[in-house]
Amino acid sequence: MKWFHFFWVIVICFLCACTRETASWSAGDPMRVEIDESALIIQSTPSQIRKINDSIVAMVINRSQLALYDLYTGENVRSYSAEIINFDSLLNVTYNHQYKGRRQYVYDSSSAGGLTDGKYQMFTYYFTGAQFYIYVNAQVEVKYIDDTIAFKKRFSGAQMKAISEKYKNANFHFMEWVEFIFIVDRDLKLQKILPQYERSSFAGQYSPAFQSGFAIDKTDLYAAIAPVGLTLGKIDANKDTPGLFYSIAKLNIQDEKALKLLFSNEELDFSPFSYLDRYFSERFFKNSEEGLLFSNGKEIWSVEKNTPLMKGEKLRDNEWINSFYVDKEQLLLTTYTLDKKAYQPGMAEGKVPDTISSYNVIRIDRKMDTMALKKLNLMDFSRFDVDRNNVIYVERDKEHYYLTHIPLNEK
Amino acid sequence: MLNEIKNTTILHISHSMKNSILIFLVLLFFSCQHEPMGKALSYLHRVADTLQIDRSGNILIYTINPNDCITCLNAFKSFDNKLNGNSGSKIYVVAVDRMIERQAIEKQTTYSDLQPQKNKAVLWGRDLFDSINYFGGVNLAMTMVMVYNYQKDSVLYSKPVREITDMHEIGIELEKKIE
To answer: Could you give the count of Cα atoms lying within 13 Å of A83 in the half-sphere of its Cβ?
Structure first.
């Protein structure tokens, strides 16, 4: 009888264990629609894919247009192009007015657009829910009329010194990027253009790298930054020096003097970053239930609270984040892994970009601290977005581009 | 008698066979391409073989990625403009696969030099672009300038446009006479 009772105790315990409910997560099969190219022909992989509502995805196409597509039909709903802007006039009322008497900016369509004589480049945008803030730049010639400091700076690099020594009577033409943030509403109608002049508050140490990523929060403008006075070689050599360099700047769209540097190498761990990783890793901002978040490709931090949500140890050495989603329960990441190129003929050693070997979706349960991973069957380079319900990316074959989404389900 | 006829016939057939075999070997020899002993011809040589261009001098080759940086594409346009006086042959290779994209570029570009002309070939294709770049020593999608000698099947000069600081070096290689 004792054995009989013992047997039933075991069975009851087993049943109790089995009836405990556990949440599980799964990623479905890719669902693919051909992207409508009747109005806008895609000439390279679209950049900065972002889902802006349940069915609409925004992307930058051909470095020249912000386009909205239906995720489930691939239809091009609408697009914004700055082609109608007269950049000559724009320069006159902005840069030439700002630097009057010191510099003259001259716009030439043959140098502004590469092969197609386009007028500008469009790289990144930030959607606030009501408006799109779009980063646009154009290459123009600058003549230094009475700006000795800026003129001398042009000749401060080793390469320019060597050229000016070799060609003593040369006539130099200086090209520069003029930068703007275009504000368009949800219907992609232009509202305003904000020129982004040099900010003296950087004191020559950094410049904003809007093309890497930026965000808007009322009048605050957060931007990834690139070191100017501090070379990447010096950063690499001294990466353990606390506070040596910063990753982003908090600016203000109304006050050009406002500046706060954020996320130094004391806070973010840059030890896994090679020289090239600093150029090629994805740096971007995303909004969430927990406010504005920033990723440098390895970690995710809260901008407002200055605290980490995820540190780099969660990823493999050669694994990098290209999109994420955060809520109270989970962190969803899309990542890529790199194969290191040891040597490439014709290129300096250590200066060759690595190749992407795989893409993954990772779910981190924030309460249980568990991870689940799905490897994506994708051969070509792509950009990603992820939210609670979907992973979204673009694929291509010989003839077409496709908008693909993978449903994410919590069972 | 019969044996004599037989022997004569066999001798005659034997001579005929030998002559036939000899003729066959001569034809076989002349049907083969003249290749340098011990060296297979390169992919670039085979591509150049198919083109209606003069292959006697050094050939200027541009491999163009339309999605390359604006500065790189401007540099390519500038080099092409300056080297236009050179009367040698040119090959342009554009890294575009789809006809729809090619038509869009041809429609939008104000850069007139993407049209074939006498002694100038314009080729389209991403695989072709990658293969020729690789032959030029670079395994990346960069816009490149190369100087190629068909007779020797060798690349005399090859650089991404973004790295060229002195255009005269290209001109010098174009003028080089290879013995």
So the answer is: 12
